[in-house]
Amino acid sequence: MTDFASLLVPDRGKKAHAIHLVDKTSFETWVKGRPAGDRALLKAHRFDGKTGFAFVILPHGSDEFEVVSAVADAKSLSPWCLAKLAERLPEGSYRLAEGEPGQAALGWLLAQHRFDPYRSKKDEAETGPRVLVTGEPARIEPTVRLAEATALVRDLVNTPALDLGPAELEKAARELAERTGAEIRITAGDELETGYPLITAVGGAATRERAPRLIELEWGDAKNPRIAVIGKGVCFDSGGLDLKPASGMRLMKKDMGGAAHAMALAGLIIGERLPVRLHLLITAVENAVSGSAVRPGDIVRSRQGLNVEIDNTDAEGRLILADALAKAGESKPELIVDFATLTGAARVALGPDLPALFSNDDCLAEDILSEGKTIVDPAWRMPIWEAYDEMLKSDIADLVNASNSPMAGAVVAAMFLKRFVPADTAWAHFDTYAWRDSAKPGRPKGGEALGLRAVFAALAKRYDRT
């Protein structure tokens, strides 16, 4: 992974090129104070302080130069306002001429991360590292952790399913446990079949090498409040016997995006050493097709005891999450958060940038939404609409896993999950895309962390060590 710590360093008088950030309000005042040569150069570039300009280099000698860039708001910097500079400036060290980068340092770091293990020829146009100097040394380590967590999500989601199956998710979890001292437990084989029948049913068609498993990590003092973080880890989703069309299957390597988010969040919680007892659960399966695949019309008894009729084998994510939610609830956590690339309906409703947030707790939901707005990691709350519970009725079992109606797909999926959440436990469910269809500065096309930073900020606020 990118050495983010080397790209954000404390200001100890290090020589660095100045970056001037201006906006349409401040530009006129700023430019009047510049030398005549700078004003002429800016005029030649038709630079007027409005967004759309990546930057203009103002030379002052053979190796000396300054940079001016237009941003939307020079006083309130977004996480991404320095990202294009970090992508395109010459190799070297830089510092803001006024103020500190704050959360914009995150975009500076992530703009220099590349997922290129499958490129035989690297980008020849790419220059060396661009280092940002900051006068806020206390913010360096937390920012680096956020960048590492985001990059972890991106890298896991981007990795092809050929190289990332349930075993590889387990390996990533083991590396996290070894690095942090967390306890790890893997449930597979006969024990999985006995204890987690829904996970077994979904992953039962895969080859032995890609057999299903439940991955659990525990960390923290048992005396602290217990929280559970759950991630859907469908390493590839063919749709099962209700086979997806080619267009719907193309990106299904990303169907383990929920697991990637959950693992990254666990790393952040441990890195910040929040005073909690963390229980991480990753449901790692491949939804394949074979003679042992679960069939439409089959009925599977869940870990919780409810009998689930399989209406659609492509609604598999909620099945494996149900067993994980039941397991998490047995330890009586005060809070559960799950991440899943669960429904196309959420994307139809909210598009690719906004993960759908469902919650049975108004305070928890508001904390996540508020923190997400502050740090520009937005989500949108969707309703848990009790009237739609009737869409899950089965003629012969306790419930079905999917509705025959094309309406309210994301809501119905959340209603299914709610059946497996303890009534007195605060719960937040993210139906996230985990993908970016087109590139933006600092945010390349491909795997993406959506909602990760918002949840972590809300948890850090709730379990503030001070």
UniProtKB/TrEMBL annotation:
Superkingdom field: Bacteria
GO molecular function: aminopeptidase activity
Pfam family, one: Peptidase_M17_N_1
SUPFAM superfamilies for the chain: Zn-dependent exopeptidases
Keyword Glycoprotein tagged: no
Stored InterPro entries: Leucine_aapep/pepB, Macro_dom-like, Peptidase_M17_C, Peptidase_M17_N_1
Keywords assigned by UniProt, alphabetized: Aminopeptidase, Hydrolase, Manganese, Protease
Keyword Coiled coil: no
Annotated Cytosol aminopeptidase domain residues: 312-319
Family under the similarity heading: Belongs to the peptidase M17 family.
Protein name: Leucyl aminopeptidase family protein
